[in-house]
Description:
Elements: H1 4-9, H2 11-24, H3 26-71, H4 74-82, H5 85-149, H6 157-215, H7 221-250, H8 267-272, H9 276-344, H10 352-361, H11 365-371, H12 387-391
Helix pairs in contact: 2-5, 3-5, 6-7, 6-9
Amino acid sequence: xxxxxxxxxxxxxxxxxxxxxxxxxxxxxxxxxxxxxxxxxxxxxxxxxxxxxxxxxxxxxxxxxxxxxxxxxxxxxxxxxxxxxxxxxxxxxxxxxxxxxxxxxxxxxxxxxxxxxxxxxxxxxxxxxxxxxxxxxxxxxxxxxxxxxxxxxxxxxxxxxxxxxxxxxxxxxxxxxxxxxxxxxxxxxxxxxxxxxxxxxxxxxxxxxxxxxxxxxxxxxxxxxxxxxxxxxxxxxxxxxxxxxxxxxxxxxxxxxxxxxxxxxxxxxxxxxxxxxxxxxxxxxxxxxxxxxxxxxxxxxxxxxxxxxxxxxxxxxxxxxxxxxxxxxxxxxxxxxxxxxxxxxxxxxxxxxxxxxxxxxxxxxxxxxxxxxxxxxxxxxxxxxxxxxxxx
Length: 392
């Protein structure tokens, strides 16, 4: 139970956590930009290293040509014979010096870029550590407030009211999430049942086609194909019937989709005594089964599935609405607890919004001025109180 004395004893810890939050709030906003600039610096350094290797290779080739021409080679003898040796030596030397200067310039740029990468890595590490410290401070501050104000607090009835409303909203969210999971399970089973029925209709149609072929042919292969497709259709329809029964166990109000049992004659008898009459009998059974499965498929597709989808969407909308309400109540509860603890430790109060804006603007000047000219505001609610502002 929170009392003024227990709150005052927790004051130093509260102020220390608020100071940590004030000093590290910049990290969450700055980290994406710092990470982006570190990646850009590393890519630039990688490109410069590739240029250095390319320029160095060209410089070595040019130096080799210059040395061969200056000391010994067939080309030296040829240019001496033509009287252009000195001119060619000067030309090759100039070309080598040009390539050498290019290599040295690239190395100088590479060294500067490496320094920039190291600086970016240092700032990135600092930002990551600040963000981790901010997260730990938020958790510790939330735990501290929960320890102080959890349960009935007769001295502060307004906080009790906010806490009870928040607990009720969280309870509603739990119930709605259970309902949403059930609706998702229902929707998933119904979709699987619909797929099984569609596949069963395809098998029945294949069986009907083979039966038509069997009526105008001789041999047992057609009879075997008819019964094989019919057996597949029967298994698929039985699977759909099982899935629908599972859904009805969760939702007894589910409409009945009809009998999905597919009758199958004796395959051995039909093959041995194959004639036009057995074929006509099989055709009648297949058509009756097709009509049953088709009616169930239409009912499931046009009536049951849309209703289940609407219920699932409605449950998801309720979850989103409840989550918004919980976030609103959490903020109100947080602000009320901070107001109470601020008054209890004897420091001036102010509006939570103004304090939050002032604290958010504070941060390590050397980091923000180096990388971020104007950091974006953190959309997460800032710590509502700081020691420095309180003393002001």
